[in-house]
Every structure is written in structure tokens, then in C-alpha cells.
Write a structure and sequence with these properties.
Among the domains are: about 140 residues; about 160 residues, no CATH class; about 150 residues, no CATH class. It contains 29 helices and 20 strands. Helix content is about 45%, strand content about 15%. It starts with a helix and ends in a 6-residue tail after the last strand. The strands form six sheets. A six-stranded mixed beta sheet has the order 2-8-5-4-3-9, with no helix packed on it. The chain has a three-stranded mixed beta sheet with strand order 1-7-6, with no helix packed on it. Strands 10-12-11 form a three-stranded antiparallel beta sheet. The radius of gyration is 32 Å and the shape is globular.
Length: about 700
């Protein structure tokens, strides 16, 4: 007791478990580097991985200008490896050992006890590690040098031999036929070291993109180290209810357990369900029901359940579609499973079902033939996907089974925003996998939609309009009072012009039907398109002083973004803008609606230029990925170098490093060193497969 009094608790820290990077997070342990290689200045030239073996190979540049670097030794190694002639197959094209290869090995077989921790604002977020890999230098270049040496010796011996050799003697050849392999012999062969080495060598390398510490993609991925939705309320995942805590202290006896009637293995009563943790309850319910409104889910979980905890758990097992929650594909099709109809692996099934879910975020109707044509799956699998979340209508297609949940969208705009960002990421993956055309990305206007106007009644539309007016009334009133005060201070007798704050009211009668197209656009826009084209408020325009504030906020975002990135595609800029919106508080001026045209005009107004990159004719890039913008003048000493580099890429889709170096030296009138060229390339370009591309233009 005395020791406890002498060591009081100073601070209590909340601990959260982040699951976004579960089975994806690896820890790389780098060796201690020589003085000529530092972590801050190192350039990752290439990276590749063998996923099944968890084997990684990184190629990193060596600072050859460092005073601790032995230049003569580097030249000797390059000469031994490549010889005197240099071509595309040479290991060291600069005739100098200017890079080092590192190969990985597993540091521990069981990493379930390890996690990566991030401490921020009094909260500790833990993400379990999927693997710990130790990187060690690879000396395969020495094997290449030995092979070159043996070839030269063989050539010399062949040259010294006599030219008048006798004809080869005829030799007898014995032909043998191998016996059929027994099952035991086959098992021994399969378990042999030679066979395992051969299988490992047969696995193909997968080339990776390396993103630096300050790259926007790295910043985006680092956000997944934080628990999703932890800021909504206190984390209650590890807190038990009184009944659950009592059950842990006094578990039922074995006799009581045996007295219970035995139910089928796939049947779970509601009483048994509520004894499970909240996350397991939600997962079991969603896996069985497939699609459910949030209100129904809360009613099934029982009274007293914390809605904030439910929101946090539901996002782990379901996605938001038209205001309703649809179970995730990887929950229905776990890893290492396959289709009962076609035997297709779970990964392909999840991709196809995600496409169907994404189509329903764009429209209430989906055509089965279109899904089958894009996903290339058998009709039975496609039918299963559609039956999970929609209802077939004769001669019309498949309609989403639940009406749009407007109440949930209104109450939880932060959840809607986060789900929208997740759907944007899924859409980008689907575009690359399926090579989606513009007609697939654009929601279709079907006659079937007009045939069901009862989805939203006229009274509901009027109530929505009134609610929107009340929401904006406070801001409009402040604008009016401000203008009125200014008029009084100037002793003017003119009446205040309040044209900018009038509320437009349209009569609603039984004779003239109300147009429903605006509401249909609102349905999809709220969940899946936060910034529709030409977005305005209910009155058809923004309030008087709001336009300037929106322009200032937008200009500040664009300027700060391009000063960090220098080169961005329109697609990447929109993604960063959505991330920026997600970090803003509700009601911010930027939520008034920013169209693509406004965003592009602001980019040009801030001193950026569009770079017309000559993409290859067979490119699968979307129109937004084809629009590349670059900061023309940043105000530093590298402006001229970057401008020359951008001119190069306005004529070439990809360029070799030596071409860039020579062009920079020629145009800038000076012999640039390696560090200066690296700095310019790091600002604007990425390296892939030995070639350099502008950021965001690599087509893998």
C-alpha cells in the first residue's frame, strides 16, 4: 500500500484498436547504414514483393558524392559486374556502384503479440502487425561478376586451343525409362528442399510503387493507423454491460449448459446473440440479413445499446448504400473460400459484388446483363449478388430493396462523408480492374425510375425544402442584420436591398405536378457525390458574402496543396479535396458545393498550368487522370529546373534519368550534381521500371 501511495497515477490514456490496416501492416527493420547512406536522403529506386512468401526486395540509391564514399572501389565493382560495355541490361548504368539491393527475411514466425502504436491528443491507437521483415544487403551482383569472370576465362581457353582438332569420337548412348512415381516418392519429393526452392523461385515478383514520407498518399494511408469513428464518443468496445460483467464473474455451471435444448449449429437465438460482444452481434445480424436500415439494427440490439458504439462497429462489417447498411463482401466471402457455383476464388467474388454495390450507390436500378458483362462471372454468382440487396422487376431490371434512408443521412453527415471517401477508393480500384468506360461510371436515366414516383411523396419534398430554409435562416438573418447596421452607421435613408437573402417559395397544387428530378439527384448526391456540378443552395444562389469566403478558402487549399505536391492530376486533387472536407467541422463554407469547373479555374488562378502529357493511345486512364496540373513558380531556386522538366514531359510520356539530367544541364547552363537532379525529380516525378513519369501518370 505504501508503494502505491508513493507512485500515484499521473494520467489515464484511452487505448483504441484500429482495424483498417489489419493483415496489411508490416514492420521493416533496416540494417545500420554506412555514412554514405542516410534515411532522410535515401531514394527508393524500385520495390517488389512476393506476396505468398512475404518476401520484399528494395533497391536504394547510394550517395556517391558523400566524402565517405570510395569512388575507385565503386568504379571497380561496376566494372567487374557489367564489364566495359553498358546497355539496358547493365546493373550500374552510370559505371559506378550507385545503388544497393536489400532482401527481406521473416524476423519472427508469430507476430500476433506485436502492434504499431500512434499517440495523438491523449489517445493511443494500436494496429496489429501482420509481419516483421528484416532487410539485409543482397550480393547477387557478386555472382554476376563471377559469371562474367568465368565467361572470360572460357573464352580465353577456347582461343588458345588448337584449330586442328580431330573429329569427336562416336559415343554410345544408353536410354533409360523412368519408373512410375509412387505416392510415397511423390510426397518425399514435394517436401524436399529442392522442390520448395523451385516453387519459391516460380512465384513472380509484383512491382510496387514507393511513396515518400511526405507524399499525399502516405499521409492518407497514415490516417488508417487511427481507429475509425473514435472521436464520436468514448470508446466502449472494451467496456462490458453489467449483465455481461456479471456473467464473466459468475459463469453458468456445466449442468445448466447441458440442460439447454440443442439448436442447429447455424441457428442462434436472440438471447444467445445478446450474450456476445457488440461487434459480433452486429456481424452476425448483417451476415444473415445482408441489408438493413440503421433504425432496424438498433431495435434488434435491444434497449440501452449505445448508438455511437454501434456506428463504430457497423462500419467494420458493412458499407453505406442509399442511406442503408449493406454487409461487406469479404464478410460473406472470407479468404480462401470459393464460389459454390463456379469455383471462383473469394477475391474475385468480392470484387464482383463490390461492383454491384457501387452501382447501387449511383442508381436505384441495375441491369443484370451489364453486371455479367463487366465482371465476367457466371450468371448464378451474379444472381446471388443481386438477390442480396435488390428485387427483380419484370422488364425493368433489379431495384434496390430498401427506400432511401433520408433520416440517417441527415443525422450523421460525418459518417456519410467517410463512407463517400471509401466508395471513391473502391471506384478507383474497380476502374483499373475492369477498365470501366464512361458509360459505366455515369448513372443511367431509366424510364423505370419515372414509373415509380411514389418513392418520395410531394409532402416529403415540401418538408425537406422547409427544413432546408430553416437551416439557412440563421445565417441569412445574420447577413441581414449586418447590412442593416452598416446602413445605419452611414446615416443613409435608403432601404436595405435584401435580394440576396430572399427565400423562394413555389406554390404546390394538385393541378401542376412537382418535378422530382432534383430530389433524385439529391439522393445520390448526398451519399455518393458531395460536390455536384453547379451546386447551389435552396434559393438557387449562395448568400451575398458567402461567395468570397468560399473562394478564399478554396484558394488557400489549392495553394497549400500545390506547394507540397507541385504536380497533381485532377483525380488526385479531387481526392485530396475530399480528405480536406472530411477534416472540416460541419457547416463550413466549403460544404456549399464546389464543382469541377470551379476547382480547375481556381488551380489556374493560383499560378498553376495544365501540362498536356502525351499519354499512350491505349491508356485506360479516366478523363480526370488525363488532366495534369503543375505549379509553375514556387518562388525558390528550383523554379527554372522544374519548368524545364515539365516542358520535357509535355513532349514525352516517360523519360530516362540520363535524358532528364542532360536536358537540365543544357537548358539551365550549368552542370547539375546528383542531389539537385534528385530534388527536382522528387518534387515532380516518380520512378517505375527504370523510367521516370510525372506524378499520377503511371499506368501499371
Amino acid at each position: 500500500m505504501a508503494n502505491e501511495e508513493d507512485d500515484p497515477i499521473i494520467q489515464e490514456i484511452d487505448v483504441f484498436l484500429a482495424r483498417s490496416l489489419l493483415e496489411k501492416l508490416y514492420l521493416f527493420q533496416y540494417p545500420i547504414r554506412p555514412a554514405s547512406m542516410t534515411y532522410d536522403d535515401v531514394t527508393h529506386l524500385s520495390a517488389k514483393i512476393k506476396p505468398k512468401q512475404q518476401k520484399v526486395e528494395l533497391e536504394m540509391a547510394i550517395d556517391t558524392l558523400n566524402p565517405n564514399y570510395c569512388r575507385s572501389k565503386g568504379e571497380q565493382i561496376a566494372l567487374n559486374v557489367d564489364g566495359t560495355c553498358t546497355d539496358e541490361t547493365s546493373t550500374y548504368s552510370s559505371k559506378l556502384m550507385d545503388k544497393q539491393t536489400f532482401c527481406s527475411s521473416q524476423a519472427a514466425s508469430n507476430v500476433s503479440r506485436y502492434a504499431a502504436a500512434v499517440y495523438k491528443k491523449g489517445e493511443l491507437h494500436l494496429t496489429p502487425l501482420h509481419g516483421i521483415l528484416q532487410l539485409r544487403p543482397s550480393f547477387t551482383y557478386l555472382d554476376k561478376a563471377d559469371a562474367k569472370h568465368r565467361e572470360r576465362e572460357a573464352a580465353n581457353e577456347g582461343g588458345d586451343s588448337s584449330q586442328d582438332e580431330a573429329e569427336d569420337d562416336v559415343k554410345q548412348i544408353t536410354v533409360r525409362f523412368s519408373r512410375p512415381e509412387t505416392e510415397q516418392a511423390r510426397q518425399r519429393r514435394v517436401q524436399s528442399y529442392e522442390f520448395l526452392q523451385k516453387r519459391q523461385a516460380e512465384e513472380h515478383w509484383v512491382h510496387l510503387h514507393y511513396y515518400g514520407l511526405k507524399d499525399s498518399r502516405s499521409e492518407h494511408e497514415r490516417q488508417y493507423l487511427f481507429s475509425q469513428g473514435h472521436g464520436l464518443a468514448e470508446n466502449t468496445e472494451l467496456i462490458k454491460s453489467p449483465s455481461e460483467y456479471l456473467m464473466m464473474l459468475m459463469p453458468p455451471s456445466v449442468e445448466e449448459e447441458n440442460d439447454r435444448p440443442v439448436a442447429p449449429s447455424n441457428v442462434l437465438s436472440m438471447a444467445q446473440l445478446r450474450t456476445l460482444p457488440l461487434a459480433d452481434q452486429i456481424k452476425i445480424l448483417m451476415k444473415n440479413v445482408k441489408v438493413m436500415p440503421f433504425a432496424n439494427l438498433m431495435s434488434l440490439l435491444g434497449s440501452g445499446t449505445d448508438s455511437t458504439a454501434v456506428l463504430r462497429c457497423i462500419q467494420q462489417v458493412a458499407m453505406l448504400v442509399q442511406g442503408n447498411w449493406v454487409v461487406k463482401s469479404d464478410v460473406l466471402y472470407p479468404k480462401d473460400t470459393s464460389s459454390p457455383h463456379s469455383g471462383v476464388p473469394a477475391e474475385v467474388l468480392c470484387r464482383g459484388r463490390d461492383f454491384v454495390m457501387w452501382k447501387f450507390t449511383q442508381d436505384r436500378w441495375v441491369v443484370r446483363k451489364e453486371v455479367a458483362a463487366v465482371t465476367k462471372l457466371c450468371p448464378e454468382d451474379v444472381k446471388d449478388f443481386l438477390e442480396h440487396m435488390s428485387v427483380a422487376r419484370i422488364n425493368k431490371g433489379w431495384e434496390f430493396m430498401l427506400p432511401y434512408d433520408q433520416d440517417f443521412v441527415k443525422k450523421h453527415p460525418d459518417i456519410v462523408q467517410r463512407q463517400h471517401m471509401l466508395w471513391m477508393g473502391i471506384q478507383a480500384k474497380l476502374e483499373k480492374v475492369y477498365n470501366l468506360l464512361k458509360e459505366h461510371l455515369t448513372p443511367k436515366k431509366q424510364e423505370a425510375q419515372a414509373a415509380h414516383p411514389l418513392l418520395v411523396s410531394g409532402e416529403q419534398r415540401v418538408n425537406m425544402a422547409k427544413a432546408k430554409v430553416k437551416q439557412n435562416y440563421g445565417q441569412l438573418e445574420k447577413e441581414f442584420q449586418k447590412q442593416k447596421a452598416e446602413m445605419k452607421s452611414n446615416d443613409t435613408s435608403a432601404k436595405v436591398d435584401v435580394s440576396n437573402i430572399r427565400i423562394k417559395e413555389e406554390p404546390v397544387s394538385d393541378e401542376e405536378p412537382m418535378n422530382t428530378s432534383a430530389y433524385e439527384g439529391m439522393n445520390n448526391g448526398i451519399v455518393n457525390s458531395l460536390h455536384p456540378e453547379d451546386s447551389t443552395d435552396l434559393n438557387g444562389h449562395l448568400p451575398g458574402g458567402c461567395i468570397d469566403r468560399v473562394a478564399q478558402e478554396l484558394k488557400a487549399f489549392v495553394s497549400s496543396t500545390f506547394k507540397k505536391q507541385f504536380v497533381l492530376t485532377l483525380s488526385e486533387l479531387k481526392r485530396l479535396f475530399n480528405l480536406h472536407l472530411a477534416s472540416l467541422p460541419p457547416g463550413h463554407t466549403l460544404f456549399s458545393g464546389i464543382s469541377d469547373k470551379m476547382l480547375q479555374d481556381m488551380v489556374l488562378d493560383t499560378g498553376c498550368k495544365q501540362i498536356l502529357v502525351p499519354f499512350p493511345p491505349q491508356t485506360a486512364a479516366s478523363p480526370d487522370e488525363l488532366k495534369v496540373y503543375a505549379l509553375w513558380e514556387a518562388g525558390d531556386t528550383y523554379d527554372q529546373h522544374r519548368q524545364v522538366l515539365l516542358e520535357i514531359f509535355s513532349k514525352n510520356y516517360r523519360v530516362r534519368r540520363n535524358v532528364i539530367h542532360n536536358q537540365l544541364s543544357q537548358e539551365c547552363g550549368e552542370d547539375l550534381n546528383k542531389q539537385e537532379v534528385d530534388r527536382v525529380l522528387k518534387d515532380c516525378c516518380v520512378s517505375y521500371g527504370g523510367m521516370w513519369y510525372l506524378k499520377g501518370t503511371v499506368q501499371s
